[in-house]
Structure formats: structure tokens, C-alpha cells
Amino acid sequence: MDLPCPCGTGRAYATCCHPLHRGDVADDAAALMRSRYSAYVLGLDGYLLDSWHPDTRPAVVALEAGVRWLGLEVKRHEAEGPDRAVVAFVARYRVGGGRAVRHRETSRFRRVDGRWFYLDGEVDIG
Ligand SMILES: [Zn+2]
Q1: What Pfam family is a match for this entry (predicted)?
Q2: 86 CB neighbour count, 10 Å cutoff
Q3: Which one of 37, 87, 101, 113 is separated from 123 by 20 to 30 angstroms, measured CA to CA?
Q4: CA of 6 to the centre of ligand 1 (A)
């Protein structure tokens, strides 16, 4: 498993997001954010649900077919307290043969019992 990690750190998947996908605790909200992006790339809908805060977790995550993820850029990572953080990012993707789309979002994360969870996000459509 020497594949480069989809999240774009330049590290191998085996030592980057894979341990989190197996259940390891993320060091911070940015690491959790990256592992969730990788989960979208790899189609790990179970992981997306597991890393979603119970208060806002949907019943299912529908992974769209035909989406090709092109890359992730984490723009900002701010701790707002020991168990609260904000991560702003841009994820690029393409659907079928369409144009590349830039999804800009500022996400909120919460830590519960030592584990980070995605709470919600505001999509920036500017
Ligand atoms: Zn990674």
C-alpha cells in the first residue's frame, strides 16, 4: 500500500489516512477533514457516517456515481477551543466529462470523548 494518499499530503495512504479509516483517532480536525476527503475519493461511506457528529449525521451518505475527485487544499485550520475547530478547504472534482468544479467550504468540527467529528459546513458560493 505505497499509494499516495488521495488527500494530497504527499504521504503514502498507508501512513496518512488509512490508519484513521481503520479507526485510529485523528490528531486534529484538519487530519479528520483530510481523511473524510480521502473517504469520498475511495467510496468509504461507512467512514463518512462514523466521522459525522451524531447531532447532524444523516441516515445515509449517497456517494454520487461518476464523480472524479481532483484534489484537496486545506486553506485554514483554527482551533476555537479544546474541542471545537474550523477548517476551510477547497475540494475540486469533475462529474463525467464536465468541467472541474471547486467546492469551497468552511466546516465546523467538534471533539467528543477525544474523537473529532464533522459537525456541519457552510458552502461558499462566491
Ligand atoms: Zn491522507
Answers
A1: SEC-C
A2: 18
A3: 113
A4: 6
103 CA distance to ligand 1 centroid (A)? 18
**Centre of ligand 1 from the C-alpha of residue 81, in Å:** 24
Q: Residues whose CB is under 5 A from ligand 1 (ion)?
A: 5, 7, 16-17, 34
CATH of the domain at 22: 3.10.450.50
Domain count, the chain: 1
Burial of 34 (0-12, 13-18, 19+ CB in 10 A): buried
- Domain membership of residue 61 (yes or no) is yes
- Residue 30: CA count within 13 A, CB half-sphere: 14
Q: Does 112 reside within a domain? A: yes
Domain that residue 32 falls in? 13-124
Distance 9 CA to ligand 1 centre (A): 6
